[in-house]
Each structure stands twice: as C-alpha cells, then as structure tokens.
Amino acid sequence: MRLTRLTQLGTAVVVAACLVAVGSGTSIADGVPTPRLATAPNTAAPDRGSAPSAGNPHGHVPVPAAARAVDTSHPDRVVGRGTPHSCTSDAVVRAIRAGGVIRFNCGPRHKTIRLTRTAAVRNDRMHRVVIDGRGKITLTGAGKRRILYMNTCDPRLGITTSHCQDQATPRLVLQNITLANGNSVGSRRDGGGGGAVFVRGGRVKVVNSRFFNNRCEATGPDIGGAAIRVLDQFDDKAVYITHSTFGGAPGYGGVCSNGGALSSIGVTWVVLNSLITHNRAIGRGANPPHAGTPGGGSGGGIYNDGNRFRLFVRGTVMRHNRAREGGGAIFFVSNDRTGTLLIARSTLKRNPSLGFETAGYPGIFFLGRGHPQVRHSTIE
C-alpha cells in the first residue's frame, strides 16, 4: 500500500511519497533498495558496565587527517592527581573552561565523573579544547543536565567576533571518552537539544567515543540531538564523527523529539566507521506541527534540516533506530533543494519510520538535490 501525504517542512511545502510495506530489503551497490517498515519500539535503561565499544568494528573506510584523533601526549591540563576521588566535577568544569589539551589521571581503572553543573567552553580563552578520556573516562549528566556546552554567540562565554555564528574558534575535540545520561530539557534559551553536547559556531569533531542514554526535549518541531546538537560551523566546514557509538545496544540509545543521536540545522556531517543504533525520535506532529500536535518525531538516528549542507555516512551501521514520524534512520530536508546525502559501505536495517519516509529508501526521509546516493551499502 502506498500513502502519499502533504506535509510542510521548514519554509517549504512538499509532497512526501512514503510508506511502502513489503517483505525484506535489498543489498545494493549504486542501486535502489526495496522499502520495509518495522514497528518494534526500543526501551531505555541506565548505563551498565558491559557497555558497547566505540565504533563499527567492521568499518574500514579511509579516515582523512582532519577527522583523526589529536596528539595529546603533552597536555595543557590534567584532571585528577592519580586517584578516583581527585577527579571531580569541579575539576572537569575548570579544565574545560580554561581550555587547551585536557587529559585525566584518575587511577588505573575506568572512572565515571558525575557533573554537578554543565561544563562550558569559553570563547575567549585557548583556541582549542581537546578532551581525551584515553578510554577510561565517562562524563555523566546523571539524567539532570547537559554535559558540554559551546556557543560562540553566548555573551556569558565571551564574544570574540562580530560574526559569532561564523567564528573560527574554539575548536572542540572529543576523543576516547564516554558521555552518558546527559539531559538538555529546560534549556530552550539556546534553542534546546544537545542532551550531551550542544555546539554553535567554531568547530567540533568526535573520535573513538561513546554516547549512552542521553535525552533532550520530548516535543518540538526543530529541537533535536539527544547526543549532539550543532548549529553553525565556521566557514560551513563539516562536523566529523569517527569510529564512535551512539547507543549501540538495547537500553543505551538516545531519546529526543528529533534526532535520537545527532541533530543540526544547516550543518554538514561526515560520519565514518561508526555505530548508531537503538535511538528514538519521540515527538509528535512533524515539522511544522500538524494541528493539535506539539511537533517533532523525525530522524530516529540523524536529523538534518536547513538549506545548503551535506551528509556523508560511510562505513557505518544504523540499526533499530525509530521515528514516530519521518526517517527512522535519517531525516534530511534541504529547504532550497541543494543538499546532498551519500551513504557508502554502510548498513541501514530495521529503522522504522512510523509516519512517512521516501519511497525506495526504507528508514530515510530525503528532500534535497536529486536522490540519495547509495554505494556498496545495504538498506532494508
């Protein structure tokens, strides 16, 4: 059965050809897959010790130098003095506020640091903020607060240019670290979203990191990003996500109105060798909201909106993400139809869109230039 439905997204009115229920999908190489719908919801659970590892172990696409980890062998700051008790929330917040290359010395075992306030990146300190957990650090918002906040247009953090939304610095790098149980609910002053990480301006990249059980606002047409929300990047450069995990197993996924893992407006993403599973977009009514609804519910894994931007998904697995409205895996709307989507050497399976998706691309809702480019990938 085919359902064609009139919906309005951003400033554009579009006709979404969606919801073709069939059997199994098709493995494709530059071809068109057969769509499929699934309906099983995910469940949320607290982080556990046997958590999924970072990245897609079978993802081996080449990683450009700009997307790789930073050398932190000579840190500017070290959190902790060799014991777990010395690694405190205040120490983390102070180090990030000061900037530079940050490492941790919390003893030989994995350490979870519960933040009692959000760590904010200053705009007028060191131009680079590198947070390297060396695979042994979890920063948690304890389900009460956002973990990291960077906003070049927030006067509380120092404005250093007259064009803050296109400011070259700070450059934030998260590597070898876990961010869990972040929660941005109540933060709509800055636009909302970004349960673990909110970024506006400057640059951000993530390498070999994990995001578990993060949350953001449950409703709203443009609020998104349970793990990461990005608004603007310097010179429209890409956000790199490399060998990282968002969810990864039942009970570890993110939940938000839109973008159960990642969300942005007008931002290009390059997602490499990563794992995005068990995330949910739970809003209701799409964008703009249908009458009598609060809006949202699109992009179970990734939510991208705006005009000229691109999304590259390479060497990545997206499974068991779910959208109450459109795009169980990916929601991509380029209002001026200049944006492009490329999926290469990736697997997208069992990402139900309960409202609408683009015919022939199960789990994806796409409005942009031409059609999604799919190369050597499986979409079912």
Tell me the layout of helices and strands.
Blueprint: E1 3-9, E2 12-18, E3 26-28, E4 77-79, H1 89-98, E5 100-104, E6 111-114, E7 119-120, E8 128-132, E9 137-140, E10 148-151, E11 171-175, E12 178-180, E13 197-200, E14 203-207, E15 210-212, E16 228-231, E17 239-242, E18 245-247, E19 255-256, E20 262-265, E21 269-272, E22 275-277, E23 280-281, E24 302-306, E25 310-314, E26 317-319, E27 322-323, E28 330-334, E29 340-344, E30 347-349, E31 364-367, E32 373-375, E33 377-379
Parallel strand pairs: 4-5, 5-8, 6-9, 7-10, 8-11, 9-12, 10-13, 11-14, 12-15, 13-16, 14-17, 15-18, 16-20, 17-21, 18-22, 19-23, 20-24, 21-25, 22-26, 23-27, 24-28, 25-29, 26-30, 28-31, 29-32, 30-33
Antiparallel strand pairs: 1-2, 3-33
Protein architecture, described:
By secondary structure, the chain is mostly beta strands. The protein has one domain. It contains 1 helix and 33 strands. The protein has one helix at 89-98; strands at residues 3-9, 12-18, 26-28, 77-79, 100-104, 111-114, 119-120, 128-132, 137-140, 148-151, 171-175, 178-180, 197-200, 203-207, 210-212, 228-231, 239-242, 245-247, 255-256, 262-265, 269-272, 275-277, 280-281, 302-306, 310-314, 317-319, 322-323, 330-334, 340-344, 347-349, 364-367, 373-375, 377-379. Strands 3-33-30-26-22-18-15-12-9-6 form a 10-stranded mixed beta sheet, with no helix packed on it. A hairpin with a 2-residue loop joins strand 1 (3-9) and strand 2 (12-18). The longest helix is centred in the first third of the chain and has 10 residues, at 89-98. The radius of gyration is 19 Å and the shape is globular.
